[in-house]
Amino acid sequence: MAAGELDATELLEATLARIAERNPPLNAIVDQFASESVGMLAEAPDGPLHGVPVAIKDQFALPWRAPRDGAYANPFGVGPGASGIFRRLRDAGAVVVAVTNMHEFGLGTTGHISAYGPVGNPWDPARCGGGSSGGSGSAVSARMVAGAVGTDGGGSIRIPSGYCGATGLKFTWGQIPVDGFTHGHLTYGTAGPICRDAADARLLGEVLLSRPLEAGSASGLRIGIPRAQWNDLDPEVERACQDAIDLLRGGGLETREISIAGSEHTTIATALPVGMESIPSSKPELVAEITPHLSLLVRALLKYQLMTPAPAIFQIERVRTKIRRSVAEAFEQVDVLAFPSTAAPAPPIENPTVSLPSGDYPADYTNIPLGGIANTAGVPAGSIPCGHSSNGLPIGLQLLAPWGDDARVLDVAEHFEQLSERRYVEAVPPIAATTAA
Amino acid sequence: MQSEEQFEIFVRAGLARFGIEVEEAEMQVIRFADQVYGPHLDALMAADLSDVEPETPLDPARAPLPSFSAERGRT
């Protein structure tokens, strides 16, 4: 668009046609806006995303639509309006063309439970697109849109990015406007871009943050390898991620083993508070009111969380501080941390369990300890595609950077893209290769 | 060790206090969730974290101070 090689009206029409063609087996897009997007384009200012169609997760208010949070409705009282994230997109000239599917209330990492139906994976529509920002990851991977906004409270940008072979970035906590965002009150969650590659993620990220994410050199950076987060992985995931680290090391980065104290408690220190913050479980009368409208799994989890012993909250606060201090100490020794985005590739929608060396587990159970560290700490973290399993499913490498240094994640991502000759970011899923370009 | 029956009584009675009923299908999910996450909760509750003061106030946008005592020492 910036080079003047594309006509914005033609691009918008092509995007809507592509969504109509590719979305049915994936269910990544749950609402599209033919007339509203034409109106946005007509009024689009000459900003950095002028005329670029983007999709947005079902957690942000649009002037013509209230978010539903992947459920029958959002119970947070967020109605239609120009949310802060919408305003930043609009003011940059972007065209909000669609809303993406998500795991109900954001309470899962698979995307197979949603009031709209499950999110499919472009690499195999019978597999999970991930969660909770599964629709955003799936829509980008299927090349329906160049970029989508996701949110991440326990890996919810990085997990679908890993599952779908996209590049996703969860910002440092607290940098985005939270008005009109159903989960804006979370101390674990924030938003971020999901795109095909790091350059696109940088561009969309700058718009969402309303500040530059200045590119720097990744050469010479020190990568911390926390070994505990490399345990009990699908062997193909471990191999692909280790190969990626080796490639980065060959490209001028150093590696150093480190450990994160308290990380053995990441599962519960993430799942419990995120669940409590994500749903209004603190009000039993509201639980009673909304549960008849929810899926069996979410309403049962909501009730389970009401029975959490109060002293656990205090323990979680302590372990969160322990993890944050340990992450801060790690960043005195290294520049980024790296470990897999997910322990295994995307599981089947019909049975979202994964097989690891120690046994079979629900995918959520294996994803949260890897995704939750960055949310517990508050640091920026991304997922970059770094390989494929023997059955053709993408594999993601996760990168964490210090507080406020969101650009560093993208610097390393771009360096890896160059070293790998862009073969993973250029890989096209079957659904995008077999339909009309 | 809490028996399955004791756990069910705990859940049903606790939620009944809020006027919330639990269907059998929901109870099955709750039992499964507790099998998965219960050991992690038990481990957290058993962990000795007495040397860690929670941050007050917590600011996830920034690196934490080295310790709460250091924070209190600031003027």
Looking at this protein, list some descriptive labels.
heterodimer, A: 437 residues, B: mainly alpha, 0% strand, elongated
Give the helix/strand layout:
The complex is a heterodimer of chains A (about 425) and B (about 80).
Chain A: H1 8-22, E1 29-32, H2 34-43, E2 53-57, H3 84-91, E3 95-100, E4 120-121, E5 124-128, H4 134-141, E6 147-152, H5 158-164, E7 167-170, E8 190-195, H6 198-209, E9 222-226, H7 235-250, E10 254-258, H8 266-278, H9 284-290, H10 296-306, H11 310-333, E11 336-340, E12 353-356, E13 359-362, H12 363-377, E14 381-388, E15 394-400, H13 406-419, H14 430-434
Parallel strand pairs in A: 2-3, 2-6, 9-10, 9-11
Antiparallel strand pairs in A: 1-3, 4-5, 6-8, 7-8, 7-14, 11-15, 12-13, 14-15
Helix pairs in contact in A: 1-2, 4-5, 6-13, 8-11, 8-12
Chain B: H1 4-17, H2 24-46, H3 68-73
How would you portray this structure in words?
- The complex is a heterodimer of chains A (437) and B (75).
- With 437 residues, chain A is α/β, with parallel strands linked by helices.
- Chain A contains 14 helices and 15 strands.
- Chain A has helices at 8-22, 34-43, 84-91, 134-141, 158-164, 198-209, 235-250, 266-278, 284-290, 296-306, 310-333, 363-377, 406-419, 430-434; strands spanning 29-32, 53-57, 95-100, 120-121, 124-128, 147-152, 167-170, 190-195, 222-226, 254-258, 336-340, 353-356, 359-362, 381-388, 394-400.
- In chain A, the strands form 3 sheets. Chain A has an 11-stranded mixed β-sheet. Chain A has a two-stranded antiparallel ribbon with strand order 4-5.
- In chain A, helix 8 (266-278) packs across helix 11.
- The relative contact order of chain A is 0.15.
- The mean pLDDT of chain A is 95.
- Chain B has 75 residues and is mainly alpha-helical.
- Chain B contains 3 helices and no strands.
- Chain B has helices at residues 4-17, 24-46, 68-73.
- The interface between A and B is large, with 51 and 38 residues.
